[in-house]
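One-letter codes give the sequence; the fold follows as C-alpha cells. An example follows:
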Amino acid sequence: MNYALPSLFALASVVQAILPNNVVTPSTSGSLSAIKYTNVGGSGTYNQVTSMIKGSWPSCTANPSCITTPKQVSGPLAPFNEEMTAVLRGPMTLHNIAVYQPSVNSSSATWKRTSLWQQNSAPDNLVFMNNKGGGASGEWDIGDTIACGGNSQSFANGAFTDAVGSPNAEVHNGNLPNGNEVNIVTATSCTDVPCDGFARGTASHGWAGSKAFVFEFEMPSDGSSTPPAIWLLNQQVVNAAQYGCNCRGMGGQGGCGELDVFEVLPNNLNQGISEIYSFKGATGGGDGNFFARPTGGVVTYMAILDMQTDSIAIQRLSSWDFGQAAMTRSIVDGYLGVPSKLVSFAAGNKRRSERPKFMHRRTMH
C-alpha cells in the first residue's frame, strides 16, 4: 500500500528544521503519538560473544558453551550506533518496510533509502530471517539454545512459518501468523563481509550508524493471548542465538542494545509500550503511557536512531510514501522535533523495567 504525499513538508524557517505535516495530532501522555529518548549513548562495556562451543549428541556437554569477552564502546547513540536488526512477532499484517540512512556520515545533508520491502513484492537489500536453522538453511546444535547453540538464523519462507534454502526464495504476503517471529537484515552476509562478534549459519549484516525504520502494519486481534511486537536488536544477538548465547544483557550484566518500538504485553492486549535497554540499564515511557494497538486498520510508525543528536524518536505518522528514495537532514530534524513524550536515558535517570519478562526478553547467559 503506497500513499501519495502532496505537499508533505511545510518549511518552518529558512535555517531551521522542516516540519513534517504527516505526523498525527500530538499526544505526549496517556495514549501517545510519539516518544523520544535523549542522552542515549554512553561509555561502557557489554559481553560480546566470541565463540560457541558445540555440544555432543545426545546432550550438551560443553561447559562453558557460550564464550564472551568484554567489549568497550562509547560515543553518541552507543551501542545503538552498531548494526541493528528489526524483529517482528505476530499476529501482524505487514504492508511496507523501509530503512533510511545518511548518505555519507551522521551529519550528511541527505538520508537515502537503503532498504525496501513492499507486500507481495521482491525486496531491495532486505532479507526476512527466522530462527529455524538446521533444516533448509542455517545450522542447529544440540541443546535448548541456552546450553549450546540450538537453532541459528534461517531464511524465512513466504508464509513466515518455516525456513527455505535461499534469501527471499518465496514472495512474502505480509501475514505474520500468531506467535511466529521474523527479523529483517541487509542482503550482505557475514560470509560476504565478516561481521562483528561471533556469527554462524546464515548470519548477515544489519544497519549501522544513524538509521530510520519505517513500518506500515496492522496488529489484528485474532482471539489469541499472544502479544504482537516490533523491536530492534543489536545484529550480534541474532547472529549468535537470539534466545540463548548472545550479548543482550542489561546494566551491570552488559547489554549490547534492545529497543522496544511497539510491544504489546499480555496484561493489556490493546496497548503497546516502548522501552530501551543497554549497558546503561533500562527505561521507557512509564506507567500509563502507551501506543494504541492497531487492531482495526493500517498504521505507520517511524523509529529514528540519530547519532548527531544522540537521540531515538518513535512516532506515529498519518502516512508515508514508500517510493520516496531520500529525505533531507532538515526533514529528519523536523521529525526529531515533533512534540513527544520525552525520556532521558542519562546516568541518574534510568530505571530497571518492572514489567514482567516475556518471550523476547528472557534471561540470557
In short: Confidence is low (pLDDT under 50) at residues 1-15, 352-365. Residues 9-361 form one domain. Residues 329-336 form the longest helix (8 residues). The chain has one domain: 9-361.
